[in-house]
Design brief:
Layout (H helix, E strand, L loop, with lengths): L32 E2 L5 E2 L2 H14 L25 H10 L4 E13 L2 E10 L5 E5 L6 H13 L7 E6 L2 H12 L14 H10 L4 E6 L11 E4 L15 E2 L2 E2 L4 H19 L1 H9 L5 H8 L12 H14 L6 H7 L19 H6 L7 H16 L6 H14 L18 H6 L1 H20 L27 H14 L10
Helix pairs in contact: 3-5, 4-5, 6-16, 8-15, 12-15
Length: 496
């Protein structure tokens, strides 16, 4: 038996025994043999090799790393946390009653309009600004800045907020009236995770809100911070979806809808006819064209008027270049429609362009255009200008160059003096023009049929259908990243 030496530090004090027992890390032990005469038997060379191997395997002491100080849990919700700004704002906000002007606007940054939220307290002269790295909207900037301000306030602070952002005020009011045990109600809002964070940070703060759209802050902020919220570092008991490893701040239903819009937009642009229009016509006003298409009746309305439905169908077929003229029907079915000539003049193939200029029309296209413009101008009491230029541009685009009827370009906007009136009344003007073409030119041409006695012209060669273009997954990923960066997916259907 081994007996402990006097002053032994290896003996385990928790082992209350007479003999010497101590605990040791087994990784550094080497087994020795001891006989009954207390003689140790060991291979000295093997012992040296064991000691050398242990020393090589023993981890070396690393130099201490200067790690940043650990933040409290509410502060971990921010990316690139600005400690100096937070300390300065906390020192300024150590009052029990505060008022702050929290304003949003767009400011020019690298030749781009970037949303920014600024705050100015009643007890300080310095202005702080906040911008986002992702989901850049004025509302998100205001919510992020408000959450940052809430972390600098003392419990029980009475805070008055004056803002010019109505959406921000509405969201905060909805958050304030929600009880803590009914937090699931916030999941139905536009920024569910952000509002959950704000609700948790402002439970001990008495907030009053006031909307003032006239208040402005003309000067730039004295100090600007670029931060985002990381909801999953704070909401440990709530699911936070992510897109491309970026936390999604919007409602999941809204996000899925926006991504679907992106995919549909890319599929639309990949069509051969769309690419043809893009390369051929560079000044199509797609927003005005869509307004014209849904003029007097929305495309997705739950009820339809039969009178307007026929006209709407006519407008859609014109835009798609799919109006059932005899040439189109001939290409669809050579046997059923062997004759593709105009049944009235029997001189040229019947196309949309020929219907507009056929010599058998009861009215000329020029007179129809002039009558429509003059009628609209008299109803609106607006003076007209450059009627001849409008008529020439209309005929050149839709007859000479073959642009489908219904597309509005910069040259075919309403011929009024004021530029705002040109855009405002362009959809109504083109709606009236197409309506008149439908009743005066299209419907009368459908009353004529081909005479079976007259021999049909030789059949035309079938137009080959181009192969569809496949959508590149990289294009979807690029657009989704743009959506994350800008916070919206509103794209021009033809041009970006």
């Amino acid at each position: 038996m081994l007996t402990p030496c006097q002053g032994c530090e290896l003996k385990d004090p928790t082992c209350r025994t007479i003999n010497c027992f101590f605990r040791h890390n087994i990784n550094g032990l080497y087994m020795l043999q001891v006989d009954s005469h207390k003689i140790i038997h060991a291979d000295v060379q093997d012992l040296k090799r064991a000691v050398k191997q242990y020393m090589e395997r023993k981890p070396k002491k690393k130099d201490p790393i200067n790690q940043p100080p650990l933040l409290t849990r509410p502060l971990t919700v921010f990316t690139n946390f600005p400690q100096e700004v937070w300390d300065k704002m906390s020192k300024n906000n150590n009052k029990r009653k505060l008022a702050v002007h929290l304003l949003t606007k767009f400011h020019n940054h690298n030749n781009q309009n970037q949303p920014i939220a600024t705050c100015l307290f009643n007890n300080a002269q310095e202005t702080w600004g906040c911008t986002n790295l992702t989901w850049r909207t004025t509302t998100n900037a205001a919510l992020t800045l408000y959450a940052f301000i809430a972390t600098t306030l003392l419990p029980g602070t009475k805070l008055e907020i004056i803002s010019n952002n109505a959406t921000f005020i509405k969201l905060i009011e909805q958050t304030n009236i929600v009880e803590p045990y009914k937090m699931a109600l916030l999941d139905k809002t536009d920024y569910p995770n952000t509002l959950r964070i704000i609700k948790a940070l402002t439970l001990n703060i008495q907030t009053t809100l006031r909307l003032d759209k006239e208040v402005k802050n003309a000067r730039p902020p004295d100090q600007n911070i670029a931060i985002d919220l990381i909801p999953h570092k704070f909401l440990i008991n709530n699911y936070v979806p992510a897109i491309q490893s970026t936390p999604c701040l919007y409602h999941l239903k809204t996000t899925i809808k926006e991504i679907t819009k992106i995919i549909n937009h890319l599929n639309w642009k990949k069509q051969n006819r769309i690419q043809n229009w893009t390369n051929t016509f560079s000044d199509i006003q797609i927003n005005l064209t869509l307004n014209y298409l849904s003029f007097e009746e929305k495309l997705l309305s739950l009820h339809t008027n039969p009178t307007y439905s026929k006209l709407k169908s006519f407008k859609v077929k014109l835009l798609a270049n799919d109006l059932p003229t005899y040439l189109i029907l001939h290409h669809r079915n050579l046997t059923k429609y062997p004759n593709y000539l105009c049944p009235r003049c029997r001189s040229t193939p019947e196309t949309v362009e020929h219907i507009l200029t056929c010599i058998c029309n009861s009215s000329s296209l020029d007179s129809l255009l002039c009558d429509t413009i003059n009628t609209l101008a008299s109803e609106l009491s607006l003076p007209t200008t450059n009627l001849t230029d409008f008529t020439s541009a209309f005929k050149y685009l839709h007859i000479t160059r073959g642009l489908p009827l219904g597309f509005i370009t910069a040259a075919t906007m309403a011929p009024f003096l004021n530029s705002a009136d040109k855009k405002k009344y362009a959809p109504a003007l083109h709606h009236l023009i197409i309506k008149l073409i439908y009743h005066e030119l299209w419907l009368p041409s459908r009353h004529y049929q081909h005479d079976t006695i007259i021999a049909a012209p030789p059949p035309l060669n079938r137009i080959p259908h181009p192969s569809p273009n496949r959508l590149d997954p990289l294009a979807i990923q690029t657009r989704v990243l743009d959506y994350i960066k800008t916070g919206h997916s509103q794209h021009n259907l033809l041009y970006d």
